[in-house]
């Protein structure tokens, strides 16, 4: 540990020398700085450092690292965990040093000091870092970029290194936005009617604007790098915790959707698959849900998820391939009833609102993408391209799917595709394979946040981590089997959670952080967006819950009148969504 401290001191001093040269300072060290700084500037600087450093001292501290893996944001420390002090931890599975709160190597601190305070205070005066004595303006200018880029040499944490190019940032944004929501856009068109597609465009515009608001919040003061950081800057520690919980619940719900998705599509490919266990018989839906859970469980135990992260980046290719298959089947193979559809369905429009809202649930990752860009000024272009491309794909799939299948459109259009066509097989199998790589990455942030709450205990942390992750996976299976309605669950997520993350909270945080600098136009727009988000969330959540309860009641009625009950409740086909 002492060697590590010495190495850190060396790098700090080297960095300071480079910065002094770049800033044309002739001082020889700390004494010159002390001679030019006033007591007032030192006090302001210390308060600023304390404020920015406090953003990552509250739970969750693992947010940035886990979300960077989830969104495939490039990082030099993603695969190789740093200096030789961790080289002995080469195991492929969870290790205690990677799941403990007090281990500095594993925590993705945004503005964490390079040295612990007690040890730093014990250093001789000539060895202490002069960074704390820089004026606030120079501190912001130097620490926001240079310090973060060089942090990788002295820490095992995941720094805010601005290394992503425009293309990488665009790919990461598309990978987050263009997910399983695209499978349900034809179903959303059926629920809302053709005029309901205008909601998709409205949400795209509003989501783009709120994404820009997050950028303004990040730029408002140094030290902000993630969505929870923004929440803490706006509403204190309570804001950080509340926003984090909402984001984690949304990720957990996405994992539930993956289980339902696999069960529905695999059972459509093998409808006669079933198994008997101790006198209990599992139909195809239960069987494939159970098999999916067993298949993804080992991936959740993995310590190094960088391989899965790179593979899951192919989610954009998978989405494009599925879209091309749909258009090929409709335009080339001439499959479909070519229904004219309904202009507007007011009764089920709230369900469509939740489905369309779910399509733009990427704001949890946008701050990470922004802080990782080598050219942050190009973030608006990245955001515009991401929303433009995804909206075109969503609208195209909604139009083609609803035109082809009309009122028979399922909650996933892959369930409507003829199984005898090659393009259908490609689309279905692509849909089946993709969630296997994304499940662990999606669940990892939730698991890491819970592992932070475990009392410090080196001997049992490995077992605790395994138990937590196993329990989370099993719980997603239970929820998926209890509420096996893919479209309605997605609508509930979009209405209850995505509206908060995408529309309401960005505006609320912006108004809180920049309340003295926001223009009247910005304030008015934020108020309108919050109103739209609240109304959409209220109607969408109520409609989704009522439909889920109705389907559960119908399923229970069928179960009570059916013989040969299994130990899981019977699952109706997803057409009831």
TrEMBL record:
Query: What name appears for this protein in its UniProt entry?
Result: Amino acid transporter AVT1C-like
* Compartments in which it is found: Endomembrane system
Q: Which Pfam families match?
A: Aa_trans
**Family of this protein:** Belongs to the amino acid/polyamine transporter 2 family. Amino acid/auxin permease (AAAP) (TC 2.A.18.5) subfamily.
Q: Region Disordered: list its residue ranges.
A: 1-60, 97-135
A single Gene Ontology MF term assigned here is: symporter activity
Q: Which InterPro entries match?
A: AA_transpt_TM (IPR013057)
Q: What does this protein do?
A: Carrier protein involved in proton-driven auxin influx. Mediates the formation of auxin gradient from developing leaves (site of auxin biosynthesis) to tips by contributing to the loading of auxin in vascular tissues and facilitating acropetal (base to tip) auxin transport within inner tissues of the root apex, and basipetal (tip to base) auxin transport within outer tissues of the root apex. May be involved in lateral roots and nodules formation.
**Segments forming domain Amino acid transporter transmembrane:** 163-541
Query: What species is this protein from?
Result: Populus alba x Populus x berolinensis
Q: Is-annotated flag, keyword Transmembrane?
A: yes
Where is this protein primarily located? membrane
GO CC annotation terms, alphabetical: endomembrane system
Q: Where is the composition biased (Polar residues)?
A: 1-11, 49-60
- Regions of biased composition (Low complexity) lie at 123-135
């Amino acid at each position: 540990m002492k060697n590590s401290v010495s190495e850190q001191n060396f790098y700090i001093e080297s960095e300071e020398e480079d910065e002094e040269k770049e800033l044309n300072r002739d001082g020889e060290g700390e004494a010159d700085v002390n001679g030019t700084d006033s007591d007032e500037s030192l006090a302001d600087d210390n308060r600023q450092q304390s404020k920015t450093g406090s953003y990552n001292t509250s739970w969750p501290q693992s947010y940035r690292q886990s979300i960077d893996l989830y969104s495939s944001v490039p990082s030099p420390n993603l695969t190789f965990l740093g200096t030789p002090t961790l080289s002995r931890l080469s195991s492929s599975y969870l290790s205690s040093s990677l799941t403990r709160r007090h281990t500095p190597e594993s925590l993705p601190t945004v503005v964490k000091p390079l040295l612990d305070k007690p040890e730093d205070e014990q250093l001789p005066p000539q060895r202490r870092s002069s960074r704390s004595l820089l004026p606030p303006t120079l501190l912001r200018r130097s620490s926001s970029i240079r310090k973060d880029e060089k942090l990788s040499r002295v820490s095992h944490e995941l720094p805010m290194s601005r290394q992503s190019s425009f293309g990488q940032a665009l790919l990461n944004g598309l990978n987050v936005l263009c997910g399983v929501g695209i499978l349900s856009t034809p179903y959303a068109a059926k629920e809302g009617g053709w005029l309901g597609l205008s909601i998709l465009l409205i949400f795209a515009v509003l989501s783009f604007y709120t994404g820009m608001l997050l950028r303004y919040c990040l730029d408002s003061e140094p030290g902000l790098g993630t969505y929870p950081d923004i929440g803490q800057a706006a509403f204190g520690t309570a804001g950080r915790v509340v926003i984090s919980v909402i984001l984690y619940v949304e990720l957990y719900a996405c994992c539930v959707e993956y289980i339902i998705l696999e069960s529905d599509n695999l059972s459509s490919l093998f409808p006669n698959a079933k198994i008997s266990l101790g006198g209990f018989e599992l139909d195809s839906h239960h069987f494939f849900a159970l098999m999916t859970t067993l298949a993804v469980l080992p991936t959740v135990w993995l310590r190094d998820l960088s391989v899965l992260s790179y593979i899951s980046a192919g989610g954009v290719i998978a989405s494009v391939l599925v879209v091309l298959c749909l258009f090929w089947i409709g335009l080339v193979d001439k499959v479909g009833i070519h229904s004219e559809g309904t202009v507007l369905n007011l009764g089920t429009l709230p369900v469509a609102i939740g489905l369309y809202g779910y399509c733009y649930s990427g704001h949890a990752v946008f701050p990470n993408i922004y802080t990782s860009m080598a050219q942050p000024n190009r973030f608006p272009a990245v955001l515009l391209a991401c929303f433009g491309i995804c909206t075109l794909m969503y609208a195209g799939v909604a139009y083609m799917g609803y035109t082809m299948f009309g009122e028979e459109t399922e909650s996933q259009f892959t369930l409507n595709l003829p199984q005898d066509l090659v393009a259908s097989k490609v689309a279905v199998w692509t849909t089946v394979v993709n969630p296997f790589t994304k499940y662990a990455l999606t669940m990892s942030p939730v698991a890491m946040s819970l592992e932070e709450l475990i009392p410090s205990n080196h001997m049992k942390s490995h077992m605790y981590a395994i138990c937590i992750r196993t329990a989370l996976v099993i719980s997603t299976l239970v929820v998926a089997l209890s509420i096996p309605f893919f479209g309605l669950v997605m609508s509930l997520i979009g209405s209850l959670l995505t509206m908060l993350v995408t529309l309401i909270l960005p505006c609320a945080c912006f108004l809180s952080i920049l309340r003295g600098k926001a223009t009247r136009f910005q304030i008015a727009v934020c108020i309108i967006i919050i109103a739209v988000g609240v109304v959409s969330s209220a109607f969408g959540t109520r409609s989704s819950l009522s439909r889920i309860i109705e389907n559960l009641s119908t399923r229970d009625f069928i179960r009570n009148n059916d013989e040969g009950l299994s130990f899981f409740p019977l699952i109706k086909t997803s057409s009831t969504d």
